[in-house]
Specification:
The complex is a heterodimer. By secondary structure, chain A is of the alpha+beta class. Chain A has helices at about 1-20, 25-35, 40-60, 80-90, 160-175, 195-200, 245-250, and strands at about 70-75, 185-190, 190-195, 200, 215-220, 225, 230-240, 255-265, 275-285, 290-300, 310-315, 325-335, 345-355, 360-365. In chain A, strands 1, 2, 3, 6, 7, 9, 10 and 12 form an eight-stranded antiparallel sheet that branches. In chain A, strands 4, 5, 8, 11, 13 and 14 form a six-stranded antiparallel sheet that branches. In chain A, a hairpin with a 3-residue loop joins β13 and β14. Chain A starts with a helix and ends with a strand. Chain B is an all-alpha fold. Helix content of chain B is about 75%, strand content about 0%. Chain B has nine helices and no strands. Chain B has helices at about 10-20, 20-30, 35-50, 60-80, 90-100, 105-120, 120-135, 140-145, 150-180. In chain B, α2 packs across α3, α2 runs parallel beside α4 (about 60-80) and α8 packs across α9 (about 150-180). Classes of the chains: A alpha+beta, B mainly alpha.
Chain lengths: ~375, ~180
């Protein structure tokens, strides 16, 4: 039975390679041998090829992912949060959350409608990582009316938490405050940032040593989607106030240049993790509410060696009108092994964020 | 060169042929797992079927007859191009051809696939759209998403496995709903 299971995995891999045209003669010969020997292998192969045929044939019937939607972010009054938080803690867990705010995410959250849902947070949408900052689609505002101010919930997804942190940071910067919870305000030249790196920092753990210095950034525990068999953790790293470089943005010569290193500890399954670095350009719309006017995401797949750090280095050109840039990172895993208990963690280090103006002047690290 | 009959194709025949397009394409792709070539063979098969429409016995098994013609087209194609491309052996193709596509099961899978596709995470949906709908090569996807080819290939594999697992999970419920 074990051999049969092993061979079916091999059939899966080889069939994928053949369907994508990546196979060698050896691969095809090996697949042929497996198919000739086993009825189960032929059955599996047929399931995959029939599925591929349906995906090609049926794809016009599937809902197309939305393209670079512009989402309204309401302005939150965090002073309410501060005053209520103490009372909530005193009452020992009078948590107020919507029914679908859960670490085990229901399938309904895996679509654009998440943007309209609970907890006063909005999902930020993008159809692919190649959306061009200067190609703005028409505004597709998502109305958002939180009934009452939402309290942080232990059942809130990391994506919602990360967005909350980002929105909070934007408000700190708008109101020109010098401090806030869960992050720090820092100044570099004429730029002000809301930085969360200190709050994400951990010392060496789980067999991972910081790339440099004493600390490294740690992702929150992954949110597991049982139905889709994937898991994800998202963290807001920094919000940068770029309102002072409007003229450079008009010329299209202002860029956020970022470099970060990723690593993961050993786990039971030994599957790789996909890390990504994400940029959102935020501006006020005609209703004076925050809206995402551009988004880009860049990916990297980790190796399985906990002693090495992999670098992701990317630039993001600021579209005209950008007021704030949210820099965030995500760790994702796919497959049935995400359902296994995980004792390890995902980490980032060596984060540097610079602003480049006219391709010549660089300010940073911010 | 194919010459169609000058006589009109019977309505019943064209209805059956239209209904069989998806399973016919799935069958051809199973024997010859290359999308472009499978599409070409589907077109050739359709032309031959249309040409032979008036030879078809309405009492006969349409699917078996159409699939047989498709199989001969696949074999003919392989004979023509086997020196320059990689294909399964004729014996294996015969073996695969013996086990027919179950139309009812395919229909259930199709319904389940529509549900499961929606459950894909957004980054996987983005890639699935580029690959399956827009018919982009892996190199084009790699450039569009700014990801290495190996990562694209691995993710496409995970998409396939995730979908197939999900479809198997959903089919009993869909079947029960249809029966009720």
């Amino acid at each position: 039975m074990k051999t049969e299971t092993y061979n079916l995995k091999e059939v899966d891999l080889l069939t994928s390679k053949v369907l994508d045209g990546l196979h060698t003669e050896e691969d095809l010969n090996r697949l042929s041998v497996l198919l000739e020997k086993s009825k189960d292998a032929r059955s599996r192969y047929r399931e995959l090829t029939v599925q591929d045929s349906m995906l090609h044939w049926e794809s016009v019937e599937f809902v197309e992912p939305s393209k670079a939607k512009m989402i309204q972010f309401p302005v939150f009054d965090w002073s309410v949060f501060s005053s209520i938080a103490a009372a909530v803690v005193a009452l020992f867990g009078v948590w107020w959350f919507h029914s679908s705010s859960n670490h085990i995410i229901s399938p309904s959250k895996e679509n654009a409608e998440l943007a309209k849902s609970e907890s006063g947070t909005l999902g930020v949408l993008s159809s692919s990582a190649s959306s061009e900052p200067n190609n703005f689609n028409s505004v597709d505002n998502v109305a958002f009316n939180p009934p009452n101010f939402p309290l942080p919930s232990p059942f809130m997804s990391t994506e919602q938490t990360a967005l909350n942190h980002a929105f909070y940071g934007i408000e700190i910067l708008r109101e020109k405050r010098n401090f806030g919870e869960g992050g720090a305000v820092e100044y570099k030249d004429t730029f002000t940032s809301w930085k969360r790196s200190e709050y994400l920092s951990v010392p060496a753990e789980n067999g991972i040593l910081p790339m440099s210095g004493d600390g490294m950034l740690k992702f929150s525990p992954m949110d597991v989607n049982v139905h889709a068999q994937n898991s994800e953790s998202m963290e807001t790293l920094q919000v940068v106030d770029v309102r002072n470089i409007n003229s450079e943005m008009e010329k299209g010569t202002a860029q956020i240049q970022t470099s970060v290193f990723f690593n993961k500890s050993m786990d039971i399954a030994g599957d790789p993790t996909e890390f990504s670095l994400s940029f959102h350009a935020i501006a006020s719309d005609e209703n004076n509410e925050n809206a995402s006017i551009a988004h880009e995401e860049f990916y990297l797949e980790s190796d399985l060696n906990p002693s090495t750090w992999e670098e992701l280095k990317q630039d993001f050109t600021l579209p005209n009108g950008t007021e704030f840039v949210i820099v965030s990172m995500t760790a994702r895993m796919d497959g049935s092994n995400v359902l296994l208990p995980s004792e390890g963690g995902h980490y980032a280090d060596g984060l540097t964020i610079n602003v480049s103006i006219d391709g010549q002047d660089t300010v940073g690290p911010l | 060169m194919f010459v169609l009959n000058e006589e009109p194709i019977p309505f019943d025949f064209s209805t059956k042929l239209t209904a069989l397009q998806r399973p016919l394409y799935a069958y051809i792709l199973t024997l010859l797992p290359n999308r472009t070539e499978a599409e070409d063979i589907l077109q050739e098969t359709n032309l031959i079927l249309c040409r032979k429409a008036n030879e078809y016995d309405p009492q006969g098994h349409f699917q078996a007859w159409a699939f047989n013609i498709a199989r001969y087209q696949v074999m003919g194609h392989i004979s023509k191009f086997k020196r320059s491309k990689l294909y399964f052996s004729p014996d294996l193709i015969d073996n695969l051809a013996e086990e027919a596509v179950d139309l009812k099961e395919m229909d259930l899978s199709r319904k389940a696939l529509q549900i499961c596709y929606e459950l894909l995470p957004k980054h996987m949906k983005a890639m699935a759209r580029l690959r399956f709908r827009e018919d982009k090569s892996l190199l084009e996807i790699s450039k569009a998403l700014k990801r290495p080819m190996g990562s694209v290939s691995a993710t496409l594999h995970r998409i396939r496995i995730n979908l197939i697992t999900c479809v198997k999970d959903k089919i009993p419920a869909i079947e029960a709903e249809l029966d009720s």
